[in-house]
Description:
By secondary structure, the chain is α+β, with helices and mostly antiparallel strands.
Amino acid sequence: MKKILVLILLVTLLLPNTVMANEIRDVKIPGVMNPNAVIEFGDNLEIIIIEPGKNLRNQSIQVPYEELDLSLMSDYEKNQYYEEKKMIKDVKESVRNIPIKREEIFPKVGMKVVYDGEGFIKNIIYPSAARAYNPLPRGTTSSIGTYVWGKNNNELVVNQYNNVIGTGRFTVFTDTIGESSNTLKKGDCATRGDYDNPKHGQEINTRRLNNDLSDTNYTHIFYKRDNGQLPDAILDIWKTGVEYLGLTYSSTLSFKGRYFYKAS
């Protein structure tokens, strides 16, 4: 009996240290590093630089400011725009009393973080004992509410009528095969699957925004044919699809945008 009590005491003393050694909630994952850097968290959650990356931020692509010009719209396009603005206002108003859910990801021993060409988080590689990317079932989205993640404050809003609005950073991707073994092509896009995983082929209405989130005239309907981790983006556009939004493709291009659709 004495040996059992001693063993229980030892486990009790050691267990908190084990938890703290593998996940300390005061330790944060850096939201920004040098472009293309790779880091790993060591046994004491210290940061180990695997790839230092290069400080190329002064060479990043500057997306020009484009002021919305209603005079360039047809009467039909103006009506569509006014309906879009009303829908966005109504959806956000309908969930304003629900607390915002902000994502917090805490470092774990052995976790690797890969940064993109602008220095924002591109991919998180979890150790085998921890969770990995786990998308929602195809054709589903998050429950009613507002969800925010990443250094760029990407925001997903879902209301009781299955209206879905995503606002934040649009990025580009270059995969060749999508979520249904489909060949990806211009006009395809990918959502963050663990928050929003619409049906394959879902029409996704988009509008390019300025950095201050003001509207531009550039809109396009993309088709959701892939999903991904997107730790600091709201939507991924396949390669040259950005041309539909008035931009020139580059592997390091990102810009502010908004998407919306009605989930089935």
